């Protein structure tokens, strides 16, 4: 058995982590505590929704993601490995006290900057403050650290959207990040928003814009101030593949959200090029890659390969069409969702006019009718509001679903080739042995368990309801299509047949269907 060379690189270290309460941050914390002997993880965390950072940390460990770890060690022992640092990446100086700043400067040797607002429709001022200025403030802190060996910046492979083929190299930013930061600091939010379209240019949202600016700041610090940094660009991060549990997620971003919406019978049309493909990366694979890259950087001091694209489409390509087909098959036949509105169905089209026509008949008209019924029965009207939120969400992803990008990952492959067999199993970061259908099964089951809070004991009821809704769907479609056909025939047939012949025809139809 070959030895694990990656875990020892973290032994005894003090690591500063931002974004620790986020999707990737939780997985990183779990892996660092379970797989390594890291001494202290300093978590930069702000008060949120009235909860102070220490209470938020306790809440994190109640997540099912940590169940495997809790079988090995007590929660209090886990908490001892983490020191909460009150702060906010959206503030100048990160909102750190002088004491906490000194603690970090004196002790931290690794920084993982994962904090960001990932909302595509975030107000530009807020996105700049958190994603761009926050990164600049982290760089300043990193340069002050006496023992810093690596600054890991978590970027995204979808921040240089003008490049249809993204190389593992620095790119010029869409604007001067320093000037953008100064500008938004001087202006009010509504003033910035009024100029947002002009500032963004061809970029579709504030997320891509501010992450590209942040990358430029890290590159600048590497070149001019010798910041020891790696820029890590994961693609669309989706539920866990297998470690520590399969299909875990804490959000509805990406394909999981689409499959759940479609599985509830709410989403019935998508504006998307069926034949194109997105690039997806399970979150545990992304974090494995981060840990492997840390080991590689510290062991080989390879400054040439400091930008790494964490992508999968060079190994596995899954078309949007295939995702929909797999999702429908799993939900309809194996893991239906409780509380469905209608039998799942519908599809996608690359023609906007057809999508909008379908949306009228399959989204908006049913929403109006059902809300009227709810109002008459004394219940709250909800479906119109739900579809407005869905429509807004769909608008955000339409740009990505109807454009195609490819990614070079030569640096990632070079790093993967240095792993021995033990490390390849323990820190899986390739597509070897992956069963795509099984993975999406696990994603849907995970969404049921961890997001919708529907335990497996509720599956029999969900399957019974799915059968009922199948019959209702078929009966409703037969009646609607039958009425449309009858109406069309009433318009067309008089052109070719006499009224006497038509009366006889309608008499026969009435006897067949109504016995009259």
What does this entry show, briefly?
This protein is an alpha/beta fold. Helices cover 52% and strands 11% of the residues. It has helices spanning 23-35, 53-60, 67-70, 75-80, 98-107, 124-144, 177-186, 189-194, 196-200, 206-225, 255-263, 283-300, 320-333, 352-376, 383-401, 410-416, 421-426, 436-451, 459-492, 499-514; strands spanning 14-18, 40-45, 82-86, 110-113, 150-154, 165-166, 229-234, 236-238, 269-271, 277-278, 280-282, 307-310, 318-319, 347-349, 406-407.
Please describe what this structure looks like:
By secondary structure, the protein is an alpha/beta fold. Among the domains are: 7-242 and 277-316 and 405-419, Rossmann fold (3-Layer(aba) Sandwich); 460-516. The chain is 52% helix and 11% strand. The protein contains 20 helices and 15 strands. The protein has helices at 23-35, 53-60, 67-70, 75-80, 98-107, 124-144, 177-186, 189-194, 196-200, 206-225, 255-263, 283-300, 320-333, 352-376, 383-401, 410-416, 421-426, 436-451, 459-492, 499-514, and strands at 14-18, 40-45, 82-86, 110-113, 150-154, 165-166, 229-234, 236-238, 269-271, 277-278, 280-282, 307-310, 318-319, 347-349, 406-407. The protein has a 7-stranded parallel sheet, sandwiched between helices. Strands 6-15 form a two-stranded parallel sheet. Helix 6 (124-144) links the parallel strand 4 and strand 5. Helix 1 packs across helix 12 (283-300), helix 6 (124-144) runs parallel beside helix 10 and helix 13 crosses helix 18. The longest helix has 34 residues, at 459-492. The model has no long low-confidence stretch (mean pLDDT 89).
């Amino acid at each position: 058995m070959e030895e694990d060379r990656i875990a020892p690189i973290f032994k005894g270290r003090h690591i500063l982590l931002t974004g620790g309460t986020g999707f990737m941050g939780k997985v990183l914390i779990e892996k660092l505590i379970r797989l390594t002997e890291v001494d202290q993880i300093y978590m930069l965390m702000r008060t949120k929704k009235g909860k102070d950072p220490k209470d938020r940390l306790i809440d994190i460990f109640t997540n099912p993601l940590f169940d495997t770890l809790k079988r090995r060690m007590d929660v209090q022992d886990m908490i001892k490995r983490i020191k909460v640092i009150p702060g906010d990446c959206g503030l100048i100086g990160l909102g750190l006290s002088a004491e906490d700043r000194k603690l970090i400067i004196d002790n931290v040797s690794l920084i993982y900057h994962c904090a960001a607002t990932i909302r595509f429709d975030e107000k530009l001022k807020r996105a700049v403050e958190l994603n761009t200025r926050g990164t600049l403030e982290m760089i300043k802190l990193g340069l002050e650290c006496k023992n810093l060996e690596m600054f890991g910046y978590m970027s995204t492979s979808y921040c240089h959207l003008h490049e249809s083929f993204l190389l593992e190299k620095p790119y010029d930013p869409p604007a001067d990040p320093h000037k953008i930061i100064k500008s938004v600091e001087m202006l009010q939010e509504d003033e910035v928003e009024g100029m947002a379209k002009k500032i963004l240019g061809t970029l579709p949202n504030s997320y891509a814009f501010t992450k590209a600016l942040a990358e430029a700041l890290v590159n600048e610090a590497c070149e001019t101030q010798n910041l020891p940094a790696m820029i890590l660009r994961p693609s669309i991060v989706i539920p866990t593949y297998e470690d520590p549990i399969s299909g875990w997620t804490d959000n509805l971003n990406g394909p999981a959200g689409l499959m759940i919406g479609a599985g509830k019978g709410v989403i019935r049309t998508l504006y998307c090029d069926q034949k194109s493909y997105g690039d997806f990366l399970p979150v545990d694979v992304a974090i494995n890659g981060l840990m492997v890259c840390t080991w590689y950087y510290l062991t080989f001091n390879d400054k040439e390969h400091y930008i790494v694209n964490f992508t999968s489409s060079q190994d596995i390509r899954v078309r949007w069409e295939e995702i929909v087909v797999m999702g429908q098959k799993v939900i309809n036949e194996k893991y239906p969702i409780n509380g469905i509105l209608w039998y799942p169905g519908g599809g996608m089209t690359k023609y906007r006019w057809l999508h909008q026509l379908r949306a009228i008949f399959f989204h908006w008209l049913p929403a109006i009718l059902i809300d009227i019924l709810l109002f008459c029965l004394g219940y709250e009207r909800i479906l119109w509001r739900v579809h407005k939120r869905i429509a807004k969400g769909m608008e955000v992803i339409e740009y990505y679903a109807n454009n195609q990008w490819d990614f070079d990952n030569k640096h990632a492959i070079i790093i993967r080739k240095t792993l021995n067999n033990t490390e390849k199993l323990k820190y899986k970061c390739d597509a070897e042995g992956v069963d795509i259908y099984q993975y999406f099964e696990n994603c849907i089951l995970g969404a049921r368990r961890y997001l919708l809070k529907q335990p497996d004991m509720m599956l029999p009821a969900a399957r019974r309801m799915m059968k009922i809704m199948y019959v209702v769907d078929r009966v409703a479609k037969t009646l609607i299509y039958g009425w449309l056909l009858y109406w069309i025939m009433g318009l067309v047939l008089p052109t070719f047949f006499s009224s006497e012949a038509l009366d006889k025809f309608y008499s026969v139809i009435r006897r067949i269907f109504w016995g009259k």
